[in-house]
Every structure is written in C-alpha cells, then in structure tokens.
Amino acid sequence: MGTTASQLGKDLLSEYQELTFLTKQEILLAHKRFTELLTKDEKDLPNVRVPMEKILTLPELKSNPFRTRICQVFSTSIVKDGSLTFEDFLDLLSAFSDSATLEIKSHYAFRIFDFDDDGTLDCGDLEKLVNCLTGETEDTRLTPEEMRQLIHNILDESDIDKDGTVNLSEFQHVISRSPDFVSSFKIVL
Amino acid sequence: TSWRQWRQSTHRYLRRLQDDVHEWLTALQLWRSDIHIIEGMFGTGILSYFSFLRFLVMLNLIIFTLMFSFVLLPIIIAPHFMLVFICSVYPTSARQGLVIFHEHIADLLSGGGFLEQTYLFYGYYKADKIHFPGTTYNLPLAYLLVTVAYLFLSLIWIVKRSANGFKRNLVQDEDRFQSFCNKIFAGWDFCISNMNAAKLKRSSLLYELRTDLEEERIKQKIADRTREEKCRIYLIRVILNLFVIAVLACCFYSIYIATIFSQEAQMNEVKVNFIVDLIHQYLPSIVITLANFITPLLFSVVINYEDYSPAFEIRFTLMRCVFMRLTSIGVLLFSLWSHITKCKEEPCVCGYNHVLYSCWETRIGQEMYKLTVFDFIIIVAVTIFVEFPRKLIVKYCDCGLAKWWGQQEFAIPQNVLEIVYGQTICWIGAFYSPMLPAICTIKYFFIFYIKKVSLMKNCRPATRPFRASSSNFFFLGVLLIGLSLACVPVIVSVAQINCSQACGPFVNYTTSWEVLPTAISQLPSGVQTLLFTVSSEAFAVSFFVVTCLAMFYVIALAGAHKRVIKQLREQLAMVGILNLFEGCQPWCNFTLRKIHLML
C-alpha cells in the first residue's frame, strides 16, 4: 500500500477525503483496486476511463443485479457508456459507504431504479426492478397475474399523489421509513 | 478573510483527526475483519447473529472483570481463616490416594473432585472480613453487591442495545402497509459479493414475495370464512395446543426425574465405572438437549395443521421453542431446589438438607458448570460429526436422496436460541460459580470461530432469511426473557433459602440477603436514615406516581405526533405539489462539489 500512497499524492488524498465520505484507508484501497484494472500504459495517464465491462469484473459488483445500472448512474461519460474515471469510482464508493447520509443513498437508489431515466418510477421501471431482484429466468419470474398484484400493492403503498408513478419525493418518503435500507445499501471493497 | 480561512482549515483538520481516531477505534474492535467478511458474503441477517455473539463475549468479559476485581482479587491476595460450627461439616470430595488419569478427566467434566474446592465454586470463598493493613474488606457484602451489579449491568446494556432496534421496530410496525415497498426498494443487500449468496438472496426474495402475495389472499380467505369453518379451526387449535402442552409436560417431567435420579446416583458412594458415572452426572444435560432437539421438530409438524398465516406460523413455532428451552433450565433448578430442601425429618435443622448437601450452592454451581460444558461439547460435536459428514455426503454422493436432503441450513433463530440458553445458564451460575463468566467468555470466543467455519464450509444460508432490523430486536428480546428467567432463581436463593453454613462467604448469616441490613446498620445514622427513606413505602409510592405521570406524558406526546403525521400525510395527498420539491438535489457529482469547495 506504500507505493500507491505515494502515487496518489498527499494533497490529492486529503482533497478526496474532503470530497467523499471515505476514510484515508478506503481511498487508498479504492485506488489500489482501480489501478489493478488498468493496463500498463494507461497507468501513467491522468483521468483514464475504465470501460464498464472491466468495472463489472470486480467481485463486489459481479453478483449485483443492478451492476450495469450502477455504472451508468455514476458514469460522467458523455456517450453514456457506463465507463468510470477514478473520481467517478470514488463517487460510487462514497455513496455506498457507511457514512453516506440516507438522503444521498436514497437519491442514488432512485436513479439506479429509474431504468429509463425519465425521473419517475413507472410501471415499466417497477417491473424491471422486480425482475432484477428475483432473477430473469422463466421459473424465477413472477407470473403476470402476481406481477400485476405486486405493482398494484407497491403503488398503493407509495404513490401518495395517485398519479400512477413513484416520484423522487415519494420514494424518499418510503425509504426513510424502511429500517433496512441504510444498512443494506452498502458496498465495501 | 484570513480568520475565516484559519477557522475552516482548523475545522477540516479537526474533522480529519476525528476520522483518524474513529478509524483507530474501529480497528481495535474484536473480530472486525471476520465480521466484515461474513457481512460481505452472506448479508446483514447473518451478520447480526455474529455481532450478537461478539456482544455476549464482551458482556461476559465485563461480568468476569467485576467478579474478579471485587471478589477473587481480595481473597487471592489476603490471607483469611474461619471458625467451625455444627452445620459446617463440609467433607472434601477430592480423591484420596492414587488418582488415575481418567478420573481427572471426569472431575474436569463434572466440576467435582479436585475442582470442587477451587476458586471455581462458591464454596471456596469462605471468608468473612478480610483484614488489610488499615481497612477491613467485607467480602460477603461485596459478593452480594457484585451479583446485583452484574444482573443490573446486563439489563441496562441489553435495554440500551435494544432501544435502537425497538424504535425501528415501532416505525416498521406502524407502517405495516408498507411491507411490499420495503421488500422491493430496500430488498437487495448490496453488500453481497458471493455468487451463491446472491442466488440465495434472489430465491429468498422471490419466496418472500410469493408468500406475501399468498398471505394477502389468505387474509382475504380468512375474512370470508363461515362460522362453521371458524368453529372447526378453533377446535383443532385447542386440541393441538393441548397436545403441545402435554408434550411440554412430558419433557419437564422427564427432566425432573432425570435430575433427581442423577442427584441420588451422585450421592451413592459406590462407583460403578467411569463411563456410567459420567452419564449419571450428565443425565439432566442429556435429557434437556434431547428434549430441545425433538420438540422443535414436533412443533414444526403440529403448526401445519393449525392454519395460521405463514408469517405467524414461524413466529409461533419460535415462541414455543423459546419457552421450551428456557423453561427446561427452570425445571432443572426447581427439581434441584425441591431435593435440596427435603430432609428426612421435617423441618430441616439448618434450613436445607445439610447431610447430603453440606454446600448446596457449590452443587448448583457444579450443575451449571456441567450444563455449560455439555452445551459447548454438543455444539462442537454437531459441527464436526453431523454437519461436516452431511456436507461430504451431499457433495460427493450423486444419488437423489442426498441431493434432496441438501446441506445444513444456517437457521439464525435456532442458533440464537442456543447461545441465549448458554447465556441464561451463565447468569444463573455466576452467583454459584464466580468463574463461570470467564468460562463462558472463552466458550463464546471459540463458538464464534466454530460457527464461522461451519457457516463458510458446511452450511448454506437459510432459504427464508431474517431481516437485520427485526432480528436484532428478536435476539435481544429473547435474551431479555432469558435474563428475567435467570433473575428468579438467583433472587429466590439469595433472599429465601438458608445459605449453607459450611462454606461460602455467607456462613455467618441465615440468608445471603441479611448481609445488606447488617452492613447498613453499621453505617453512620445520617446515611441510614437516607437509605431507609429511599426504601420506605412513602418514597416508593411517590416514585411510582411520578413514573406514571412521565409515562402518560410520553404516551400523550406519541399520540399527538401520530396525529400530526396523519394530518401531514393528508395534506400531502391533497395538495399534490410534491413535484415542486423536485428542483433541489442534495447529491451533486464530483465537479460540482469541487466548485463548491473552491468557493
């Protein structure tokens, strides 16, 4: 870890510490893991983008059903290909860290669950979300009848203004009363 | 300005310092990395079991520290001697003459023989006042106060830990209509990084969703039930509950019989042979373990016919198991108590059977010691001789039966029940055997590693997992039941039963409790009046009234809050201007935050 510390630079490190919810150790570990994904010549370049496929090989993300969505949400790439720079990567870890606030976590959760990026969770988003959770194969899927009932129940519970979709405020309202969310919305390297 | 800059930089510096200190402190925590790995692989449900185990290790360590510093240490460093009275014949049970090796093993397992007269048991603490140069140390008083202190300490610590979970539970309970949202929006455990665990999590989520949807339908069906159907179901439930009670009664009776038989066999001077003696010694433990193995299986069969909703089924079976586990200790103690206070000619001269039980406290300490040791042996044995072979069979045998059987499930409720049972024994036993908390600390320390290995190598997580929030509360709830159950025998034996006249710190008193009034009467009169006022009825009544008032205030406050919440919800729904809030965004990406910092 000594070599990576010198690579990252003391000023940069303390700046990152300011900007994220991560501790020094976590940032150093993140840097180490990130540089492992780079090829030899890329290591010297500043602000390298790692393509999504490579990020997804990380074991922490590999078995996560929302892995592509997570990359897409945190990517600052203009072409929206889900590629991450180191700072994007830190942003990701920061949102999923222990000390990130509920507000931030629920905000990112909302964006991850909003599959079509239209700012609300509609029936299509909810169906995709449920399928992500239970698995895509035929026998793990809910039947259309069950799905209809489930989405009806979800909207019944969370859609306060009855417009047929869950918007951000409604989502945060629901999440704030869900006791498990903060402890489970976490990725640790 | 420079002043502002300086303030900002110091603020930043302090924050970093705080972070560093926090990091250091967490690094010092026991098993941090192990628990981290478990959390990463199996999610938060199983994590809460292991952090519960860690909590028990810490608790026992603290209890032992208390015992050690106030009871053991004074008696170790100071010389003391005692006078001999009529009731105080206490024959040593250490083996005379040539001792064979296996007898040492038997002593070690049963707490008898050479172990009996050591710091391990109550009987050895036979000292009244310990004279140090300058002061005298009242050992009996210290012994009693430490007992009270460790029970109180445990209570406060558990309540403090559970308060958090309880709050969450209340929130969740209030929002029962939000269960689907919880499962969908907060259902995935992002910590999971193990492929298998992820697969399991998926199937368990699917299972939960299906059962919940099913439950909705069942609720509908229950609401539509006719009167005859209701009558039939209630009749079946009554009959099955009677059956359950009968099973419980059978178990309790066999524990009683086993205890009495084992006590009588131990009194017998004629030794048969090593193994038979050991079985006699361990008979109550064996019967309790067997009963606790069979009854849960029975209960899980019985519950199928009672036609409850699926969620309630699990909870109800669990409640029955908790009752069975914890009450069996109570039955054991009751049978011991009835045997100890039974004399040939009534009433007993010394208040207890001083012929057979010259030092009955040590005897109970030995029983608790045996239960602890046996519990540990069973946990180790089950892991090595049942779970491990089962895994080998499932892994290397291709036949359908083995596949159907599958690996052992890591069922959290059963495992928690197991360690709560051990802890209850420890609380009861700590009075009779001051070293028991130390033994329990070591025991839980090893159990942590055994369970970790067993989880990683032998078991698969349960298909119907526990949620972290509800489980934390459940663990502490069961532990609290265990604690209150442990208090009863300790209080009864301290306040009611005559303490042994042959051994222990209370030889000069009729009951252990008498130490306290005696000690108080030696205090200066000012302090005495103060203490008497505090313990008087007038004070108790007024204190009770004040507590009631405070409680009513809190209840009223809660009601008001609830009403406000309801009103606000209505307002939200009516106005429907939620979208207005859309504009402000608390998250902003890196570049924005950077700009913010520069400004």
Q: Report the major sheet of chain B.
A: 2 strands, antiparallel
Give the largest interface: A-B, 65 and 63 residues
CA-CA gap between termini of chain B: 13 Å
Overall number of structural domains of chain B: 3
Order of strands in the sheet with most strands of chain B: 1-2
Describe the structure.
The complex is a heterodimer of chains A (189) and B (599). Chain A is mainly alpha-helical. Chain A has 2 domains: 11-96, EF-hand (Recoverin, domain 1, Orthogonal Bundle); 102-185, Recoverin, domain 1 (Orthogonal Bundle). Chain A contains 12 helices and 2 strands. Chain A is globular. Chain A starts with a helix and ends in a 5-residue tail after the last helix. The model of chain A is unreliable at 1-6 (pLDDT under 50). In chain B, 73% of the residues lie in helices and 2% in strands. With 599 residues, chain B is mostly helical. Chain B has helices spanning 2-28, 32-42, 44-77, 101-110, 139-174, 179-185, 195-223, 227-267, 274-302, 310-340, 360-396, 400-405, 412-432, 436-458, 468-495, 515-521, 525-535, 537-575, 590-598, and strands at residues 129-131, 136-138, 408-410, 459-461. Chain B has 3 domains: 1-30; 31-522, no CATH class; 536-599. Chain A: GO terms for molecular function: calcium ion binding; magnesium ion binding. Chain A: This is Calcium and integrin binding 1 (calmyrin). Chain A: Keywords: Calcium, Magnesium, Metal-binding, Repeat.
Task: Summarize the structure in short.
Chain A: GO terms for molecular function: calcium ion binding; magnesium ion binding. The complex is a heterodimer of chains A (189) and B (599). Chain A has 189 residues and is mostly helical.
